[in-house]
Design a protein that fits this description.
The structure is a homodimer of 343-residue chains.
Chain A: H1 2-9, H2 13-21, H3 28-41, H4 47-54, E1 59-65, H5 75-91, E2 95-101, H6 109-114, E3 120-124, H7 130-141, E4 146-149, E5 160-163, H8 165-178, E6 184-188, H9 194-210, E7 219-221, H10 226-231, H11 233-241, E8 247-250, H12 253-265, E9 275-280, E10 293-296, H13 299-315, E11 324-327, E12 330-332
Parallel strand pairs in A: 1-2, 1-3, 3-4, 4-5, 5-11, 6-7, 6-8, 8-9, 9-10
Antiparallel strand pairs in A: 10-12
Helix pairs in contact in A: 1-3, 5-13, 8-9, 11-12
The first copy, chain A, binds a DNA duplex (16 and 16 nucleotides) through helix 2 and helix 4.
DNA sequence: GTGAAAGCGCTAACAT
DNA sequence: ATGTTAGCGCTTTCAC
């Protein structure tokens, strides 16, 4: 095929290669002939062969847990991050290889590099557990470029792009205080996610800063699912009725919505008796009643930033310093946290 | 690397290859030595080189429109279908190559095969427009295996996996009639999606079958976005107040939710004055007030089925008959369509 | 059952 | 500026 193009254009195969890959110098006129010949024979070079010859897969891997039953992600989170990564990868000529990891599957990330399936990878939904730490350490040791999204590992300087969850939580607390709330609770997620820990720390700091009381009983625990939010409604309602709680910040929107539904059934008026704020500002918060205040996280940008930085590092390993980006978040105020909050 | 494994095992490179790829016959004992050697040297074959030699990319392409601003998909739809495809591909040893198509980008699907980036592909969100038809015709002509998801093209026997939207709509109409509703409207999406046309046909059939009146003014049009549902609230409210409408079926949940919000603002009590049913049964329908009745579509299964059938066809081109699968849907009844519907 | 060698379709020196 | 040639790391005949 390529040979026929070369013949038709009256040049060698090497020249065909040069023209089509834009590497090396060729006379304008020769290039034109080659292009025409390729056009006529409907020829395009095999990316597979190119990549093999170059010893680069041309793929950016995205590793993420199999979705069914994974509560950490709203589908919103997932779609946004992935789109951001997709855009950035595309602009840089990389293809996106999607790698689902099933729950019991070993985290053999380094193998993806050894088999040359990917040139770099982004990890979504990594957890701070020993097997994950080992897998990441192996990547690091093998000098395989990777980047974490929305997760970091204490003590390890891994590339990561995250939202500034702490700042968001502090802002939420300040907002509630400004609105006259004094007894602010926090519904958090599991500590295997660094976000959970960051938010808890910020929650305590913000309370301390304002001279407000920190009370352990006001910190509730869920697993980021709607259901666990729903299940905490009873405890929250009791505290509210006892006059010991007038606001709750939930660590994600799903739990906030579950809590909202549970409270509604228990007759607690959210937005009035109790102010409620979620995190993520996913697409569902506009659909609840009352609309849910939430901390907007730029998921699309997080994905884009992670891919851009990572691929830049791959393109230019020389001046590739490790990065640890925190993108700003923004509190979006809606009726669920306003004193005049109504339907 | 491979050479060192061969040396260590005391065999030729060809034998190493045979052992690791499981092709050809090797003595048990030899195989064991090779495996140990590979293990010791931490060697795994390059998938890139293998695929190059085999002239197969090992990738299943998934083509989908860039998400931002695409209303057709809820993120729910997207995540579910993709997960289903991912599971099936993985089981068959294929990797998933995600290919975002930007709005103005030419639909040059065939090139993905020519460049050997993919061995087969699944198209999500295809539209019935000329450029799409051309691109698909080119795939067909080149004998490139592909499968459509949730879309079909009249007159073309392309592989496709879809939900039985017509059956779902008929069931919804019957449900409403059984609940005493007599004046049923339909909020549809654009006709470039075959689903829209299928549903409209089924809507008319079901009405005719029941001897109920079909009135054009009761068919409203949106673009599958929440916003267009919201914008139709005024027209719907007017019809309801005029006693000319007591139920609406929306072609997806997003529009249903927009409509629900709009109606609420206009003081129409959904579930009572007006019964409302959406389509997709996405994760948000449990979060609205009242909860939204919806037609459940097995998106995960659709993705899985598409990938399985397609990859089976690739594995066995001999007996690969074109397929056109319709998966059953199920009406999930909630308060928005029940006579006693309340919060 | 195993080894030797050709070839997959490119890229990249090196030579001219 | 262009042609020649040697790989890239596998698979796969074809001998033995």
């Amino acid at each position: 095929m390529r040979k026929k193009v070369a013949e038709l254009a009256g040049v060698s195969e090497a020249t065909v290669s040069r023209v089509l890959s834009g590497v090396g110098s060729v006379k304008q006129e020769t290039a034109k002939r080659v292009l025409e010949a390729a056009e006529r024979l409907n020829y395009v070079p095999s990316a597979l062969a190119q990549r093999f010859a170059l010893r680069k897969s041309g793929n950016l891997g995205v590793i993420l847990p199999m979705l069914p039953k994974v509560n950490l992600f709203s589908t919103y989170y997932f779609s946004e991050v992935l789109s951001g990564i997709g855009i950035a990868a595309k602009r840089r000529g990389y293809d996106l290889l999607l790698l689902f990891r099933e729950p019991e599957e070993p985290r053999d990330y380094a193998n993806l590099f050894r088999t040359q399936k990917i040139d770099a990878c982004i990890l979504i939904g990594a957890q701070d557990v020993p097997s994950e730490r080992e897998a990441l350490a192996e990547l690091k040791e093998g000098h395989h470029p990777f980047c974490l999204v929305n997760q970091r590992f204490g003590g390890e300087a891994y590339n990561s792009v995250d939202a500034d969850q702490g700042a968001g939580l502090r802002e939420a607390v300040r907002h509630l205080l400004a609105r006259g709330r004094r007894q602010i609770g926090f519904l958090n997620g599991p500590a295997v996610y660094s976000n959970s820990r960051d938010r808890l720390d910020a929650y305590r700091e913000a309370l301390a800063e304002a001279g407000a009381a920190y009370e352990p009983e006001r910190v509730l625990l869920g697993n980021y699912s709607r259901k666990t939010g729903y299940l905490q409604a009873k405890a929250v309602a009791d505290l509210v009725r006892a006059g010991r709680l007038d606001a709750v910040i939930a660590a994600n929107d799903r739990m906030a919505i579950g809590l909202l539904q549970g409270l509604k059934e228990l007759g607690i008026r959210v937005g009035d008796e109790l102010a409620l704020i979620g995190c993520d500002d996913s697409d569902v918060v506009r659909m609840t009643d009352p609309p849910l205040s939430s901390i907007r996280v730029p998921f699309f940008d997080i994905g884009r930033e992670a891919a851009e930085r990572l691929l830049d590092a791959v393109a230019n390993p020389a001046d590739a310093a490790p990065f640890d980006v925190k993108l700003p978040v923004e509190l979006i105020e809606r009726a669920s946290s306003m004193p005049d909050g109504t339907t």
